Amino acid sequence: MKTSKVLSVILSILIALVVLTGSIAVPLLCRSFYYAHIGPMDLEEYGLPRGEIERAYDEMMDFCLGKREDFSAGALAFSPSGADHFADVRGLFLLDLRVLTAALALLAAALAVCKMRNLRPHPFLGRGPGFWAAAGLGASFLVVGGLAALDFDRAFVIFHSIFFPGKDNWIFDWRTDPIILFLPQDFFRDCAILILALLLLWCGALIGADLWTGKRGRKGQNL
Questions:
Q1: With CB atoms 3.0 to 4.6 Å apart as the test, which of 12, 100, 187, 199 could cross-link to 21 if both were Cys?
Q2: What's the predicted TM-score (pTM) here?
Q3: What is the residue-wise DSSP string for 53-93?
């Protein structure tokens, strides 16, 4: 069976994209993660019952995920500046989901081509593309996560300055955009922790699978 270095690099990139965007997609799509924060964060103290808080969050997320064209947040008022920020957020959320879908489709296509042409990725240093994707991604995000843990407030500001360059409409005034009361920074911290945990879990699984496959292959050669 022939091997391909280019194929190995392509598969590594696609696997890394699937793991990264898939991990980010979980808190975007799993609304029960937010609902679970309503009680522990005492969000009902701001004057809305739990049902209204959930409705506000659902309408906001429906807009951010492209399920509705006009921004709304349940019974909560909002400013034009606040709506503009959520429009920017919408772009990032939809980009993540589109990259995830495209990466999954390309990964499936690449694997199908490998099977049809009896081709396999070149094992750089004896390791497969899953190992290198996981090693690179895991190491990078361990560093990023470690730095963020040292000062999450600063990391939060840096994140917004990178993904919303030249804008300050992400700095909300609760009097004009009360939705911010129901989206405390601690919730975003927990989202970041969830994404990092999922990403590292997948990276660990990919590395473990590669090591196990390599060990099994060496045993077969010794028989």
A1: 100
A2: 0.91
A3: HHHHHHHHHHHHTTS-SS--BTTB---HHHHHHHHHHHHHH
